[in-house]
Design goal:
With 453 residues, the protein is of the alpha/beta class. The chain has helices spanning 99-110, 115-131, 157-169, 201-213, 233-242, 258-268, 272-279, 296-305, 313-318, 326-332, 348-363, 379-394, 428-434; strands at 7-8, 22-30, 33-42, 48-52, 63-64, 69-71, 73-78, 134-141, 172-179, 219-221, 223-225, 250-254, 286-290, 308-311, 336-338, 410-413, 441-446, 449-452. Strands 7, 8, 9, 10, 11, 12, 13, 14 and 15 form a nine-stranded parallel beta sheet that branches. A five-stranded antiparallel beta sheet has the order 1-18-17-16-6, with no helix packed on it. A four-stranded mixed beta sheet has the order 4-3-2-5, with no helix packed on it. The two termini are 17 Å apart. Bound molecules: zinc ion (ZN). Zinc ion (ZN) binds at residues 77, 79, 140, 253, 289, 341.
Length: 453
């Protein structure tokens, strides 16, 4: 992996310890559209104090930002350790290769990596993510124990490695300790090569509380269920019940693979999303990761709960999962967010591009995600705004974007790159997603602290 220099240039770290900033942008994405001459003011806690469009003559002390300003996106699904494996599984040695054979090889990495190695891999990864336009990441964390399966003396050693990496890299983090109990619907024990993952409901809750007790700046926690195949129904219900009054997000892998759908049908008589909607009191804190194989009835059932869906286009393509039914999920109004999952890409523009291109290839149409009938003719603008809002929900945030009270997490586009030079404002996001091959952010800001690139 190459590592680039990402140096915080301004501001201090820690709640209440930031240097308030007055910034001015010729163009900024405010309330779902481009607005001109925007004065942006941060507070000592790294949030937005005031955001005022139409300020043609900014105060003398306001710093002029060198390009159009976008809010940063949340990367809603990450397994940081898998970054060490990206690019190393693109050789087929036998007659068949699929998700399950990839998983066996991925476990080889999972069984070896130490807390120090995880911190090193995650620090590099999180820097790459920030350079790629993500200012926050949700870490679906199931690699808990020592390689022989015994708990570390500090049970939170691996989680702490991730939290330290996020702080070193300058990215916000929602850590989601994962409930992982069994190898499959009919396999009540874990496989030997899953021994680092074992958790109970009590342990997941106590890990969440421990992470919060660290009070590390920029780090928060929710919980996750690995999948229906990896956790018993009664345990999922118990975890949901224990979290009923907690504001933190709850994530779950679901319906990524047809094999998982078939196994769930055989074990329960229901498809995975159907089972989840029928047996767990879902709400807006819940985020279903992948949801690749969903019927129209399942999509409507999720929409009625307020839960969101995390789509991971480059990983889903890489693993041969199947194609997400983007038009139907968008039409149902389900909050959507983007995850980089196995990290074959660390840039959200690539994820949005592939999300749309998958639809174009099978439908033989263009601009499938655009919605001119509701005033959204730009494909990238519609997808970006959807992922901005859905990503915030996946991270457990109430406020999002360039609005007072939201974290001052944003990107300054580099319009000096050839692909963006001279592009009209209304086409900038489309050009970034569909016609730009290199990261095109001149600056990234996280909680009011500036990094470059
Ligand atoms: Zn995943």
């Amino acid at each position: 992996m190459t590592s680039v220099t990402h140096t915080p240039l301004q501001g201090a770290t820690g709640p209440g310890g930031h240097t308030p900033q007055r910034l001015h942008a010729a163009h900024a994405w405010v309330e779902g559209r481009w607005q001109a001459e925007v004065l942006l003011e941060t507070t000592p806690d790294g949030s937005w104090g005031a955001v005022t469009p139409g300020v043609k003559t900014p105060p003398a002390d306001a710093q002029r930002l060198p390009g159009p300003v976008l809010p940063g996106l949340v990367n809603a699904h990450s397994h940081a350790f898998q970054r060490a494996f990206a690019g190393l599984a693109e050789r087929r040695e036998g007659t068949h290769d699929d998700f399950w054979s990839w998983r066996d090889r991925m476990y080889g990495v999972a069984l070896r990596i130490t807390p120090d190695e995880l911190q090193a891999v995650a620090t590099t990864l999180y820097r790459e993510m920030r350079a790629g336009g993500y200012t926050h990441v949700c870490e679906f964390h199931y690699l808990h124990h020592a390689p022989d399966g015994t708990p570390y003396p500090d049970r939170g050693a691996m989680a702490r490695a991730l939290a330290r990496a996020a702080q070193q890299a300058g990215i916000g983090l929602t850590l989601l300790p994962v409930l992982y109990e069994r190898a499959g619907f009919t396999q009540p024990q874990l496989r030997a090569d899953q021994r680092r993952f074992a958790t109970t409901v009590d342990q997941v809750i106590s890990m969440r509380d421990e992470i919060r007790s660290w009070r590390m700046s920029g780090v928060d926690a929710g919980v996750a269920v690995h999948s229906l195949r990896a956790a018993r129904g009664e345990s999922i219900a118990a975890l949901a019940q224990r979290c009923a009054d907690d504001p933190g997000p709850v994530h779950v892998h679901i319906a990524e693979q047809t094999g998982e759908v078939e196994d769930c049908l055989a074990a329960t008589g229901q498809r995975p999303i159907e089972w989840l909607c029928a047996n767990v009191p879902l709400d807006a804190r819940w985020h279903l990761v992948h949801a690749t194989h969903a019927t129209p009835a399942e999509i409507e059932a999720v929409a009625r709960t307020g839960a969101g869906v995390v789509v991971c286009p480059t990983t889903e393509a890489n693993l041969g999962d199947g194609l997400f039914d983007l038009p139907r999920w968008l039409a149902a109004g389900v909050p959507l967010s983007i995850g980089s999952d196995s990290h074959v890409s660390r840039q959200w523009p690539r994820e949005l591009q592939l999300l749309e291109y998958g639809q174009r290839l099978v439908q033989r149409r263009r601009n499938v995600a655009a919605a001119p009938e509701s005033g959204e003719p730009s494909t990238a603008q519609r997808l970006f705004q959807a992922m901005l809002q859905g990503g915030a929900a996946a991270a457990g945030r109430r406020k999002v974007g360039l609005v007072p009270g939201a974290l001052a997490d944003f990107l300054v586009m580099d319009t000096t790159v050839d692909a963006l030079a001279g592009v009209p404002r209304e086409n900038l996001l489309d050009a970034l997603v569909f016609a730009t091959d290199v990261p095109a952010f001149a600056q990234t800001w996280v909680s009011g602290v500036r990094y470059t690139p």
